[in-house]
Amino acid sequence: MGAFGSPIHCSQRLLFVHSMETVLQVLIDGILSGLLYALVAAGLCLIWGVMDVINFAHGEFLMVAMYVSYWLGFLAGVDPLVSVLAAGAFVFLLGVLTYQLIVKYTVGKPPLAALLATFGLAMLIKNFCLNRFSPNFRILSDTWLGDKTYHLGELIIPIPQLVTGIIALLVIGLVYALINSTRFGWAVQATAMDKEAAELMGINTERIYLLIFGIGGACVGIAGGIMPTYLAVHPEVGSLFGLIAFICVAMGGFGSIPGALFAGLLVGVVESFAGFYIAPVFKYVAVFGLYLAVVAFRRKGLFGW
Amino acid sequence: MVNPTKNRIFGKDAVWLLFIAVVAVLPLVPGFADNSFRMHVFILILLYASMAQAWNILGGYCGQVSFGHSVFFGIGAYGAAMALVTYGTAPWPGILIGMAAAGLVAVVISYPCFKLSGHYFAIATFAIVEIFFRMFQVWDWIGGAIGLDYPVIEEGLWNLVWYSKTGYYYFALILFVIVFGVVRWLEGHRFGYYMKAVREGQETAESLGVNSAMVKLTAMAISAVLTALCGVFFVQYNLRVDPSMVISLDMAMKFVLITILGGAGTLLGPLAGAAVLIPLQEYTRAFWGGLGGGIDLIIFGLIIILMVIKQPAGIVGIFQGIRQRIAKARGKGGAEIGTP
User: Fold this and answer.
1) Would you call B297 and A126 a contact, using CB atoms and an 8 Å cutoff?
2) Is the CB of B312 less than 8 angstroms away from the CB of A110?
3) Can you give the residue range of the structural domain that contains B219?
4) Residue at B290 is within a domain
5) Is the C-alpha dihedral spanning A219, A225, A229, A230 positive or negative?
6) B6 lies in the same domain as B57
7) If phi over 0 gives left and psi between -120 and 50 gives alpha, with beta otherwise, what is residue A253?
8) Strand boundaries in B78-236, DSSP class E
């Protein structure tokens, strides 16, 4: 450890480790950020599972949603809890457009064509925002949820993150129900399994792809819509979230929404514990190391087939 | 045109030798070398063409699209910088250690990564970049996030540092010749065919007796060592290094995008990609300066999208298409050349 410089002094750390409350607090923080990751990942997971396409601009979709919510709050005074709907709708359209203008044309090209094309889109969106909105960090103040916290004994639960977590669970549940117990969902599953066969059954797979890209965008749009309450928005904010979403989806397993939820929670908790008990800089090292460890043993992720 | 063997030796290679000769005498032409910005652009084209070519071995010829090459790039850069800055010697021992370390790291990370396929492999290489980036940022021995700054030292081959652009220009040309030479040699060598066989179909290649794991591992190691060499040039040219300069995801993507833009799996592709991208990047930056933050990358993003959608074979593919069209027109009769 010496080479890396430990931020917490040894005796202090012992004190922390032995406190049960601290462990619980770190766990709660991890679960709350994990739910957010899961929501971001769910959208990506849907697209990946149905189309076998990685949307590299996923993190940038999140950033766009955050800007939508931020500007609505800043210019029109709309609270993020309301503008979350606008952000979701906006990114739904962005997803539809992305499919219609870009991803549609990568079908049948080399497997990574869609990834590279959407990377180009990510560069475009990121630098457009950089150019228009400057690299400044922006955060909304005086929102309804604001800096409110809920005290549970010794534990502190931040309300904005809690609400985000609840919304994340709701949206993920809704998407899961949509895929598993509606006619549309069955059509989606059929398309994911065998595109040609689904077309022969009279399913308009083109429209399914379009809607899936839209719904995947809406998921990340909703996540991004709430975030300006507690997280600053800037043009680079999406990159890390995008990467973590890739990790969650790949770790959870090809197109498995419960897998993405589980992986999101796991990533959140590992990040939280590594950040607290080892060193803050190690939290992402731990997360990405966890991914490598998981795929080394299960090539298709935890819930993959 | 009659004898294909003759054509290969005196056609393709002759064009390359001519190109190198022209590039080599350019600084001697009056009026060329005195514009230091133009020299800078030429140096960067040679550097990025070499980087993309090093990536091309694994990504283009062997078909394993790695997004992790900035790790090897960074290790090479840090090797030279550590020798010069921390230990105060010439960069040479650091260069050798850095290249060896890059090869070693490549082999070690290949072991888990090559088991994965498609998107899982791509994401694993992203994860490796992030891990190395964050480790380098907090590693005090190599300067942490602040990085290493070169002191003012004597110019020349011993320190691999020059006060003028011309010195770097020839250094970059030598780098270019080494990397392109290796790839040109691999193209005609048995190993080059093994790599292409693995790219076209791993199972088929294995059924014909190609040890695909070994081929991929070797391609990765060669690619990593050459990438580290490019990193050496990068740090010697910039005279400083920090983790975000070399081991970032953006840098990792540059390797991929330049090659894809030019045409993956071809000798000419990386050079074509760099010759388009680098002037675009440097001149838009010079033109708009701080005001136009990101405009070069907006244009570049658009080009990438269009290229992947319309012409996945890259710039080389466009030329091949034109050449085929001309050949077709000629076949039909000379009169049709003008009317495509």
Assistant:
1) yes
2) yes
3) 35-312
4) yes
5) positive
6) no
7) left
8) 148-149
